[in-house]
Structure formats: structure tokens, C-alpha cells
């Protein structure tokens, strides 16, 4: 994977950034930073770490945008 430019997408309305106050239905997005770190450790360049809500149109838009710009898309959701 050396030299690969990628984007990490995490999906879910319940995800929030670490450090933000969480409501009872929310969880911190730990998968995004973990996956980005593993990509870097494997030699990839992470161009973006994005969270996308549980909305089909928004997911499709994020995937299409990433597909046009990167070599690899890693998503969890």
C-alpha cells in the first residue's frame, strides 16, 4: 500500500467527535481514527477522515466524491 492515497469514511448518525459531550444515543467515533492510523502504519497517505450520517444520498455522495479523488476507500458503518 505504499504511496496509496485514501479516505476513511465512518457512517452513522450516532457518531460524534471525541471530546464532544455525548447524548445517551451517541458514541464516539473511535473506528475512524483507528482505521486511519492503521492505514498510515501500512504506508498509505490518509487524505481525509469523514463521518457521514445514515442517509443514503449523503453516503452515495461521499463515496462518489472519494471515488473520483483517491486510490482506496476504507469505510466502517
Q: Could you give the topology of this structure?
A:
Elements: E1 5-11, E2 15-16, E3 27-28, H1 31-41, E4 45-52, H2 56-69, E5 72-76
Parallel strand pairs: 1-4, 1-5, 2-3
Task: Provide a descriptive summary of the structure in words.
The chain has 77 residues and is of the alpha/beta class. It has helices at 31-41, 56-69; strands at 5-11, 15-16, 27-28, 45-52, 72-76. The model has no long low-confidence stretch (mean pLDDT 90).
Low-confidence stretches: none
Strand order of the largest sheet: 4-1-5
Structural class: alpha/beta
Overall number of strands: 5
Level of helix content?
25-40%
Based on the model shown, name its key terms.
alpha/beta; 3-stranded parallel β-sheet; 2 helices; 32% helix
Task: Offer a concise description of the structure.
With about 80 residues, the protein is of the alpha/beta class. It has helices at about 30-40, 55-70, and strands spanning about 5-10, 15, 25-30, 45-50, 70-75.
Amino acid at each position: 500500500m505504499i504511496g496509496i492515497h485514501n479516505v476513511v469514511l465512518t457512517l452513522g448518525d450516532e457518531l460524534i467527535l471525541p471530546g464532544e459531550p455525548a447524548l445517551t444515543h451517541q458514541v464516539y467515533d473511535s473506528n475512524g481514527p483507528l482505521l486511519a492510523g492503521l492505514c498510515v502504519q501500512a504506508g498509505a497517505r490518509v487524505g481525509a477522515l469523514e463521518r457521514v450520517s445514515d442517509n443514503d444520498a449523503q453516503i452515495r455522495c461521499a463515496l462518489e466524491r472519494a471515488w473520483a479523488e483517491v486510490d482506496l476507500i476504507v469505510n466502517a458503518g
